[in-house]
Amino acid sequence: MSKAFQLDVNGSQWAVEADPKTPLLYILRNDLALNGPKFGCGLGECGACSILVDGRAVRACTIPLSAVGSRCVTTLEGLGDGDNLHPVQQAFIDAAAAQCGYCLNGMIIATVALLQQNPSPSEADIREALRHNLCRCGTHIEILAAVRGAVELSQADLRNEAARKVARMSGGATETLERPQ
Amino acid sequence: MTVERETSKDDHLSREELLAVLSAGASGEGELYLTIGADGLITAFNGHVDLGTGIRTSLAQIVAEELSAPFEQVQMVLGATSVTPNQGATIASETIQVTATPLRLAAATARHFLLAKAARLHELPVESLIVEDGIIRTATLENWSMTFAELVAGDHVRLTIDPEAPLKPVSDYRIVGASRPRVDIPQKATGRWTYVHDVRVPGMLHGRVVRPPYAGFDHGEHVGASLISIDESSVANVAGLVAVVAIGDFVGVVATREENAALAAKQLKVLWRAAPERPDLNAPEEALRANPSTPRKLADRGNVDLALAGATTAMDRTYVWPYQMHASIGPSCAVADFREEGLTVWSGTQNPFPMRRDLSILLDLPEDRITVERLEAAGCYGRNCADDVTADAALLSRAVNAPVRVQLTREQEHAWEPKGAAQVIDVRGGLDIDGGPSAYDFETRYPSNLAPTLPLILTGKIPAAPDTLQMGDRTAIPPYAYGNLRVTVHDMPPIARASWFRGVSAMPNTFAHESFVDELATAAGVDPIEYRLRYLQDPRAIDLVHAVAERAGWVPHTKPGTLGGEGDLLYGRGFAYAVYVHGKFPGTAAAWAAWVTDVAVNRKTGEIAVTKVICAQDSGLMINPDGVRHQIHGNIIQSTSRVLKEKVDFSTTAVTSKEWGGYSLITFPEVPDIDVLMIPRPDEPPLGVGESASVPSAAAIANAVFDATGIRFRELPLTPERVLAGLNGGGQAETPAQRKRTVWWKFGLPIAGGLAAVAGLLTMGSPWRTAISPIERPDANVYSSVTIERGRLVAAAGACNVCHVGTDGLAFAGGRRFDTPFGAVYATNITPDVENGIGGWSYPAFERAMRQGISRDGHHLYPAHPYTSFAGAEDADLQALYAYMMTQTPVAEKPTETKLKFPFGIRALMAGWNAMFLKAAPFQYNRAEDAEWNRGAYLVETLGHCSACHTERNVLGAEKGGKAFLSGGFADGWEAPALNAHAKSPVSWTKEAFYNYLRSGHARDHGSAAGPMADVVSALAPLPDADIRAMATYLAKGSAPAGAADEVTTAQTVVAASVSAQADAARLAPKGARIFEGACASCHTGTNALSSLALNSNLHSDSPDNLLQAILNGVEAPAILAQTTGRETPEIMSMPSFRDTLDEQQIADLAAYLRARFAPGKASWDGIGDAMRRVGSVVH
């Protein structure tokens, strides 16, 4: 039986009406036209439909609509900041980490979740984190390179952010210094 | 809406200002290859499609190069039947090698025309003009230039491809041969690329198909003739259902929303004839030898028979390749829009033009009224279900007169995709007196054809008779100069549905060639590479072999074991080489490839790790070197996966590998390090690179395993159990498919209980009770809001709606079925409807029913209604509950009545039963305990009636007393585990654990509530925290002895034990281990918030029932999770049902593994089959 739900997806509020058991994946794709998450198995096995829920990578094909509540959902489309790519997306493009690209969504989402938990993962950490994201084309080598690239980009981002903070602080100080003149 | 439609050829050619290049048509105008617009934009057309190999980018490079135009100005249109040339199916790595040739000539033709035009306009000698980046200049006039756009503007010109057009010398190449980022990846990485799965057309409906039971077999008289009947009433309740469509054995459903189409397909009751039995394809050798075939001799030189007779060392070898699958990551999907004027399909097909012909036959529609829009799909490596699903969508669209999108399920894609066929190769040979190869007598069997598009045979449009094609001959001629050579291909029809799969028959043929030559070398006491070089004559092959040996630092050796080992590991290194010859015999050679690979073999577990692959490839001119490198990587990884892990499993009638646990793929931790050496050959023609590097894989790995272990493996995949059997000197036996398996969930439940005992009751007690007169329905306004609220909480504590919920979800409407040992009991309607519910019941009638189990009219209720617990409830609680129930919405529906079989159908017997088992006394509070404990005890023992499920019942269905109280029982097909000190869970239940479990449905050290208990947790949601804590306090006191080992330490110990048990469990149940890894471990690993299964009580129980329940029916995420947020909260994912996905054998394998791995101290479960029948018989 259809029910009305309010969802928080990519920072916006969405009203949808569907059977409470509907997998969130169908809602994201069909009602919200978000094509990033892909249908792969419907069994939570392959990772193609991965999304972030409250920052954690989960498989949208096995989440009933009724379980989402007010949690924050982020899809591949919501990772970047306006026109700016998320550093993980940038790293995957730089490494040409796709053949057919169908698994790419899951790989990127899993990497974003990994780097949030562990900003400087080892090679073994990376391989383990992606263990249950399947790729059939054999793009693993490029994907691993992309994740290593993402680690560097994210750390560079953090350094830049810190530098900007310092600059703001010192800029502020300059202003105070300059004011008396 | 995402509607992708390519501009048609006519529309392209209708532009007034245009330069177009077409092929020479037999009559009139030919096919379109290239256009340049007045805006300078270049559009190029190719009939092949991009399967993820990046040919969209490479073809654009070829066009840009030949035109000397900027790469960014070129756009490729691939495989759209309305505009691209018909270049057949995208197969055999031939896009760059074959179909790019006319495109390159078209670009050259255009370039010469533009140069000539510029020369003419400005009266300059054409030789003086140079073109760069789409701009024509002359060395003599510094400020003069013309763009392509200017030259095209104002004119409409159509050129015919000039087959003699001079091509640019390779030495001038700047775009071709330089790596170029793929044009599609930025959009794919941001979700903006439109795959076929993403197409949405206005008014589009959603379809699903229901396939017949002979999954994965496409020939025989039963194909298209197995449907007996469809019960449409089984989907009458599906919202938005538009149609159920059946044509022959084609069955589909259409609904307005995707989830409803999926529900309808799952729920639709279809009766099929039993599928015919097939030969055992799990160990395919026998079946392939028995398959009728026609020998075809490809080579016969020297005198093979004589040489064999004279061989000093005779070697007769057989190599067996299993059935494998393309295993596309996304199941196929298509959209079709059938209208009077014609059909448009949006398809991920690999073969747009051949598929258009199939659609034309299927729908009796001329080909020129069918448009195929080709969009990318999940990678395919030959032929998956893309064409099938397009035809499915077309049939459904025609039936409902609207555009329909059809998405296949994972199970359908796995089961029905045309497989890569099994193959059996026999080689007879040996050494001559000088240690050279005496003869090479090679015979190969490969049961495959093109696999007809499924709806054509399901609907009976074409007969389901198996074609015999000549597909077994790819790379059948060995690359070595064997003086006495005979090569025979036994052409045969398919057994299981099969078609092209990357490397086709070349991969198995090369497995044989390169394993055999390795064995010859060892027998001759010669280094394997040196031995090959003695008989290799192709200079490019020789260069390649030298190059890879040097790159790998190959150390010549004449026997295995030279690399030694470490602990349980044995190290080895292997070599193999092939040039992939594809297409109809004698075929065309694609790129040359050679592997050196390192392995580590664990002699205890049988696991093989491919640790390094050094691969050299000669691809001729490389259009996009990075693209070539990625193709080599992809081939190495995919073929390593095939060699180590991949094999399709079959029952006697169908494919049983229907998801990633039943068909395992390589995972990231298993991916080898790869070193690629690309031989620069810019002056040689470009060669196909899509498959070549796969071809040497199997022999290279098997040869490396021989080097490590001294054992030759000639059958794939190299699973741990096969390797262990080899190491232990045993055969490589495969479990044959069990014959004539009965569908286990169809068995009835044996009736428990003793008739004699029941008969004895007849003499006891007074069976008849008086009716209590009906009343007018009480006015809801007479109850205070405080009373109603108290009643609401009583109803929550009693979880009344869990049992009394209506079949359509209406609260308290009744009708839910419970299977008891005595028969099916249906819950009654307890809404205040006078006719059908309890609206006419006075409070005394209600109280009597609650405390004594007597209905208002005097008949006895069965103790499925837990009145024995409610008997002790506080008056005020029952009064409040009455008030609450009377204020609910009445539902005027009569649920199914309970009708038990004799003697249980005699309700009067319950009088005797009550006399024996009903103790109608108020609840006794315990003064020695505090108020919280007492509140908890009251809730658990009366309103909550926990004992109704968690206490064992005697043969008469009464809860046992004494020690049995809360010591565990069975209910509704589930085991309700002990809630006291008898609990089997490895970590004791603390107050906190009980609280978390009852409040959120999840306890860290125990797992999640499932089945009826999940419903109970949801029902308890309205209760205040204090009540939940009270229950937890009471239960915890009865459960864990105070001061028991702290749960953190216990949990760690238990989890550590499951880690230690992993290898033993995998050895005991290797298939179960793979199913766990592929199907379960994505959630059930230590890396996410779900509890380890080692802590789950179900794995430690004496019975596997709850585990089987979870696997068969799934576990829904407790609805209460929707009220929680944050990273630390439990997972919101539900566990899917595997009822339609895994078969009985797979579940038994999985359960055996889970028990051995996660409860290593416990005895293995006997009678999994019986338990499945027990659990499966419960109707939900």
From TrEMBL, chain A:
The 2Fe-2S ferredoxin-type domain, residue ranges: 3-79
Cross-referenced InterPro entries: 2Fe-2S-bd (IPR002888), 2Fe-2S-bd_dom_sf (IPR036884), 2Fe-2S_ferredoxin-like_sf (IPR036010), 2Fe-2S_ferredoxin-type (IPR001041), 2Fe2S_fd_BS (IPR006058), Beta-grasp_dom_sf (IPR012675), Diverse_Oxidoreductases (IPR051452)
Protein keywords: 2Fe-2S, Iron, Iron-sulfur, Metal-binding, Oxidoreductase
Entry EC no(s): 1.17.2.1
Record GO terms (molecular function): oxidoreductase activity
Name of the protein described by the UniProt record: Nicotinate dehydrogenase subunit A
From TrEMBL, chain B:
SMART domains for the chain: Ald_Xan_dh_C (SM01008)
Keyword Iron assigned: yes
Pfam family membership, one: Cytochrome_CBB3
Cytochrome c domain: residues covered: 786-889, 931-1039, 1067-1158
Keywords recorded for this protein, A-Z: Heme, Iron, Metal-binding, Oxidoreductase
Gene3D superfamilies referenced in this protein's UniProt entry, alphabetically: Aldehyde oxidase/xanthine dehydrogenase, a/b hammerhead, Aldehyde oxidase/xanthine dehydrogenase, molybdopterin binding domain, Cytochrome c-like domain
Domain of life: Bacteria
Keyword Membrane listed: no
One function term, GO molecular function aspect: oxidoreductase activity
Enzyme Commission number(s) from the entry: 1.17.2.1
Signal peptide extent: none
Protein name: Nicotinate dehydrogenase subunit B
Species in which this protein is naturally found: Rhizobium herbae
